Amino acid sequence: MSNKKRRPDLEALPVKFPNYIGHMIAPWYVRTQRAGTFSYQPLLSDISVQSGRDTAAIGSITTQATLTAVDMSFACVEKRTRVRIGYDQVDSYGGKAKADIAMGRKAKRGWMNSFEQDIADMLLKTSATDISTDVVAGIDTYVALLQDLAQGPVALCLSHHNFVLLKNNATVKDRLKNSGIAINANGDPRRITADQLAIIFNCDKVLVGPDAEWYTGVGAYKNNAGLVILPDENEEPVDEPQFARTLYYEWDTDADFFYMESFDDDKEDASYVDAKGHRVVKKLNADMAMTLQLFAAGGDDDSSSSSDSSESSDSSSSDSSESSDSSSSATSGSSN
């Protein structure tokens, strides 16, 4: 007989997460069934205005657009993390209750890391436009193209590693100084924030993701970054064109993303905690994002590598503070 039991206390447990950005690129979209169909609005070209119609003769209106919602099927896939603590370690954690809390936090963080990796893979692990010969001009060009669609804020999404490299780019530093943004006397830009970098690229946001998912996690695609028109999480996909959404099955109003259980196994002399949930990421309008190769393959701007390594440790908390502000909203159901 199973001794598994539901753990609503662990489902509501606060957890410290990295500076996730995936939830802003493909916001959560709750479903009450694990599989089914939903509708979204496709991205269409703007329509022209008709003029000179003979109103006296009630002339026909010939300039018009037909808007048709697209139906998309989905099937949320189970994602599960399990953490184990041996009975001989329980006392080290201060007892069974505290051991369960430690396992719960680890399980929830692992589950959310997996979600972040899904979004990084979707955006970066694809064919990219190479702008490595002039990365600044390239970003300018493609930001303008997405802004012309006027469907929402445009964000540059990249790893912390590449964020550091961009700040050390000579053209970027010149733009920063010419924009009145203070740089250290020796030209060290390590305290430049993501919001300030967004100003010089004329985009709305620069989103800096954890290197574990957005750099090392994407392997050979580590030099890539994404430009995305960010969806409004409060809008239905059918209300306005959106790039992507993450559909997840809501177990109940308490569980949100995670259904958590704990159990003991006397044969293994261990306690276990599971975090499980069902989700799937759906790309809706691919033209609302693009992937850019910032640096040449195998190179990633070695000229600044010595300053990058020291900056990476010094600035990880301050540089990507804008992302951390919204990280809690991404996981509000799991870190109440």
Summarize the structure in words:
With 336 residues, this protein is an alpha+beta fold. 31% of the residues lie in helices and 24% in strands. It has ten helices and 13 strands. The protein has helices spanning 8-11, 22-25, 96-124, 135-147, 160-167, 170-178, 194-201, 211-214, 305-319, 321-330, and strands spanning 5-6, 28-31, 35-40, 70-75, 77-86, 129-130, 154-159, 205-209, 224-229, 244-249, 259-265, 270-283, 289-293. The strands form three sheets. Strands 1, 2, 5, 10, 11 and 12 form a six-stranded mixed β-sheet that branches. A five-stranded mixed β-sheet has the order 6-13-9-7-8. It has a two-stranded antiparallel ribbon with strand order 3-4. A hairpin with a 4-residue loop joins strand 11 (259-265) and strand 12. Helix 5 (160-167) packs across helix 9 (305-319). The longest helix has 29 residues, at 96-124. The protein is flat. 39% of the residues are buried. Mean pLDDT is 85; it is low at 302-336.
